[in-house]
Structure of S-adenosyl-L-methionine-dependent methyltransferase:
Amino acid sequence: MARTDHDTWDPATGVGMTATFGAVVRAVATNKGLLDDPFAELLVRAADVHYFTQMVENELYSDDGANSVTAGLIAVLGAYTRFLDDYLADAGRAGIRQVVLLGSGLDTRPYRLWWPHGTTVYELDQPSVIDFKTDVLVALGAELTASRRAIGVDLRQDWLAALYRVGFDAAQPTVWIAENLLVGYLPPDGQDRLLRDVTVASAPGSRFAADHIPTWNPLQLEAGRGFVDRWRQFGLDIDLAELIYQGEYRHVPANLADRGWQTVEFKVADLFATIGMANRWRGGRKGDAITPAYVTATR
Ligand code: SAM
């Protein structure tokens, strides 16, 4: 099953909706004190999707059984953002000054995190997502905390050439982040090419972190359909089959290992433990089965 193309972005439909939902997650996590993203709620408001605004204002997701699954998803995604923020800080302490955020969505790391002097953050996403975010942040007068190069590009195509064009230096170590991207948004061969290109552009000392779903299992499909059905009731025009590709994916850690990376794999419970919030994960076995797996890698 192949997903349809998504050249135009709408904050309430398709893949664009997933970028908006990422901002919802960071807004909720900020309100709970888990993260500090002062721009997330403002981006959600600018996207102007009533259901998402309500999620942030009223924690709409937490008032019944189906919604508690949404609450669980928000908690997992927020914890992963927190984990990655720490991972990036650690890479900075190790001397890495080049950061690439693949499928950066409405994340605002070049504005909201502290970066060592001389850090350049490259953000890659669909042109319309990059433009929307940049316009909103400029209008807000948000100040950059690193040098930012934002590239509107299709990650199924030759994004590496676009990265080189704006000054990326493959001779320097890089920290790469693919957050909520390798979970079906790229087709299997596109995901494979992405990992190949990341490797080609990674000097020794580079690091990589991603969450990943090898191939959606029946429980994940059931949970995914549950979200989509519920969100459609609230007027969001989304269809799971249009959102994600469902093919046979190569296991991301094995793929990276075959390309010469040293990998560490972990699960959602480890994720919460690593950020010092072990008691916040109450998903149990079903939770484990529907959440992504995680990998970090070094070269
Ligand atoms: N990393 C962000 C976060 O965690 O909030 C966004 C995650 S969102 C689930 C997936 C992102 O991948 C969206 O912003 C979407 O536009 C982007 N994306 C999906 N397919 C893409 C493609 N072929 N080219 C460029 N970006 C793509």
